[in-house]
Structures are given as C-alpha cells and as structure tokens.
Amino acid sequence: MKELYTGNLYWPDTLDSTREYAPLRENKKTQVAIIGGGMSGSICASTFINSGLSVLMAERGQVSGGSTSANVGLLHFSNDIMLCDLIDQIGERDAQSFYRACRDAVHLIEKAAESLSEDVGFRRRSSLFFASTEQDLPKLKKEYEALKTCGLDVEYWSPDEIEKHFPFRKPGAIITHGDAEVNPYQFVNGVANAAADAGLEIFEQTDIVAHDTLPSGIHRLRTADGYEIEAEHVVYAVGYEPEELRGKLIKAEMSRSFALVTGIQCNLQSWHERFLVWETARPYLYMRTTLDGRVVLGGLDEHIEQPLHSEKQRQERSEKLHEQLKTLFPELQAPIEFEWSATFGESCDNLPFIGADPAWKNVYYCLGYGGNGTVYSMIAAHIVRDLIFGDKHPLIDIVKLDRKSLTNV
Ligand SMILES: Cc1cc2nc3c(=O)[nH]c(=O)nc-3n(C[C@H](O)[C@H](O)[C@H](O)COP(=O)(O)OP(=O)(O)OC[C@H]3O[C@@H](n4cnc5c(N)ncnc54)[C@H](O)[C@@H]3O)c2cc1C
User: How far is ligand 1, taken at its centre, from the CA of residue 377, in Å?
Assistant: First the structure.
C-alpha cells in the first residue's frame, strides 16, 4: 500500500463519525465490482446503482481515506491544460466538448450533493484565474477568447477591476462563473452511504490482490484474506496506485503537492464573494475559503512522488504558502492549523485516464488524474456506465487509455 499523504489533514476533522463497513468475509457474485472507495469509486458506485446495476465496492482501507481526503475541494470547469492549448492538442471540436463536459460535471456534482441528506459543503462559486506575470497576459487573453467562443460563462478583468474586488493588483484575470467548492471527505462519505442505502455492497479493509478471468468471461478477484468476488465487469478506481494495473497502461507523472488550512479568519470581507483563486504560474497557487471562515490553500508542487516526511521541512513549505496568502490578503492573519503533503498524479497530455482496458474485456479504469480530479471522477462514472451498457459516450475517444496523445510516451 502506497503512502499517499503525510501531515495533519483537515477534512476528516469535519465529520464527527463515519459509517464503518465490515471487511469481505465470504465469496460474492455481482454485476460490477469496483476496486477503490475514494472519489472515483464512490461516484461510480452511486451512478451504477442508480442505473439499476448490482454493484460491490472493495476498499483496502476506509472509504474516502485515500487521496480524496487530501483534496482541497475546488471544482472548476477549467483544467490544468488551458482550453487554447487543448485545442492545439486535440482540435477545437473535441477540446470544446471536453470543457463543456467539465462544466456539466460540476452541475452533476451539485445534483449529487443536493440529493444527500446532509450538507457536504457544496457551494457554487466563481473563480478568479489571474495572470501571475505580465508575460502571461497574451496567453490569458487568448484563453479568455477560447472560453468565450466555447460558450462558457466568463469575464475578463483588468488590473483596476481586480483591485476593486480584492486587496491585490494583478496584470489581468479571467473570471469563470459556474465553478464550485465542496468538502470532499463529507461528499464521498455521503455519496457512498446513500449508495449503500440504495443497495451498494461496500467492504472496507478489503484489499484486492489478484484478478483473473474464468473461461466463461467472468472476472474473479481475490482479496488478501482469501475470499473471491466474481463479477461481469471490473472497475479500477484505485487513484494514484496504478502500479497494480495490468501492464503499463497508465503513463502517469507523479509529484507531490502541499496544502494548508488556516484557523477561522475574523476578516474575510476582502475576499470577494468567496471566489476560488488560482493563477497562470506553474506550479500554481490555489485557494478557497471554507463555510466556517477558514482559508484552504495549496501549491509548491515538486517532482517527487513520496509525500514529505520531515515535519520541519513540511512546516517550511507551509510557511511559504502562508506568506503568499498574507501577501495577497494582508489582513488574513489567522495561523496555520492543518498542513499536509500529498502525492499527486498527472498525465503527460493533461487528460485523465478513463475507459476500457484495450485488451481485457469488461475491465475499466477511472483515474481522474489532474487538478480537476473530482470533475473527472464524475465524467468517468458516466463514461464507464455507458461502456457497461454498450453505449458510446461522446468523450470516450478523448480520454481512453490508448488515445493518440499518449501513444508516443
Ligand atoms: C493536495 C491535493 C489537492 C487536490 N485538490 C483537488 C481539488 O481541489 N479539486 C479536485 O477536483 N481534485 C483535487 N485533487 C485531486 C483529487 O484528490 C483526486 O483526483 C481524487 O481525490 C482522487 O480520487 P480517487 O478515488 O481517484 O483516489 P483515492 O481517493 O486515492 O481513492 C482510491 C482508493 O483505492 C483504494 N485502493 C487502491 N488499490 C486498491 C486495491 N488493490 N484494493 C482495494 N482498494 C484499493 C485506496 O485505498 C484508495 O482509498 C487534489 C489532490 C491533492 C493531492
């Protein structure tokens, strides 16, 4: 089992208790077996159950205990790869379809959150995406035009307009409307629990250690405790632990990111409408607020897969992030209360890995690598559901594992 984060996470502290699910202690048969109980596994499970399938979800630890709990909960329709670059990479029609699907996925996440009996911190927010330097301005303006042409709800703000709304000045910014924030831990627990109430079988502490196919085409999974699951379809929603996937299908680039949560700020009025904030620099700084008035921010990504162990070095990174916050919002002086370092996965073409195994029938992957992982999880659930039902989802060729943009990697 990979160590996915180190430090002191914030989100698990926001739930008094979580429902516990017993480990698998007998052999099982199901239509769909999902491996992994994080954001991707839970959204898939809920989508499949709501489509009338019989579904089992096996999680080697606890539901929502993987990278999902290190996520900072920003939901954008914009992606790590700008639309203008994605157009160059895959053509205008596909790039626009992908961006619109991300916008629609935020709406689906909203509907999923609204269907839950508890508030999981989903709130619609607009985003400020600012140019970090003057040099980034031409690209930012090009991106604004691309987003507008795509029909997305965007504005362009000059330095004066930025300064009118925030206590800082930047060379320019795109404002995107239709984004959102969520508490990822509460959301995934809520989605999984609701799906369990609707018939999903969840097994925690259930590590899948082997997978083969019977002559009949049925898949057989074996748990570390020696029990077997027979399934017509198997979905790998294993997050940043793709090593156990067959062959070298997942050409991922792993790094680590740093995040912190401050204490409750007594003065958030200068934070215009609680916008989500990020920038053009790479790696980028990303920021949001919480419903109880904290600030969550992250960044300083490093090309090292393992999360940082040394508490002292982690504190140094957190202090650096905190300084960036105080430079932008000098009046926000509440101290750091939570900080962590976590593994983060990306693909070389900045698109997630979603779809069927090209050489193993009825095996699928839902790996929402990238800063927009939650949005990708929602898209993945719908693509894989369509594959299971034999339908063709419009995005499938863009994100499939054997897509052209990955072939030379
Ligand atoms: C610092 C940081 C900030 C982020 N911020 C954002 C953000 O603002 N917005 C956003 O959308 N995304 C963000 N992300 C990305 C987001 O966290 C991920 O995309 C998402 O949580 C991944 O969900 P997942 O279900 O794919 O993975 P996970 O949550 O890791 O779930 C995978 C699960 O599979 C289980 N598993 C693996 N192998 C097996 C096995 N063999 N048997 C049984 N179980 C197994 C693991 O135990 C794990 O629980 C961020 C990530 C990081 C690190």
Answer: 10
The answer to the question of residue 115 being in a domain is: no
Structure tokens at 282: 């790479």
Are residues 372 and 334 part of one domain? Answer: no
Q: What CATH number corresponds to the domain at position 172? A: 3.30.9.10
Q: What is the mean pLDDT of residues 149-175?
A: 98
pLDDT in tens, 358-378: 999 999 999 999 889 999 999
323 is in which domain, residue-wise?
126-177+252-347
CB atoms within 10 A of CB 407: 8
Token pair 């157009």 in the structure block, residue:
87
pLDDT band for 213, please (50, 70, 90 cuts): very high
Output the domain CATH number for residue 212.
3.50.50.60
Q: Which residues of 148-173 are buried (b: 16+ CB within 10 A; e: fewer)?
A: eebebebebbeeeebeebbeeebbbb
What is the pTM assigned to this prediction? Answer: 0.97
Establish if 262 belongs to a structural domain: yes
- Which residues share a beta bridge with 279? 130
Ligand 1 contacts (CB < 6 A) are 4, 35-41, 58-61, 65-68, 70-74, 207-208, 237-241, 244, 257, 259, 298, 342, 344, 368, 371-375
In a domain, 140, yes or no: yes
Residues 213 and 164 in one domain: no
How far apart CA 230 and CA 27 sit, in angstroms, is 8
Q: Are residues 336 and 361 in the same domain?
A: no
The 10s digit of each residue's pLDDT in 279-300 is 999 999 999 999 999 999 999 9
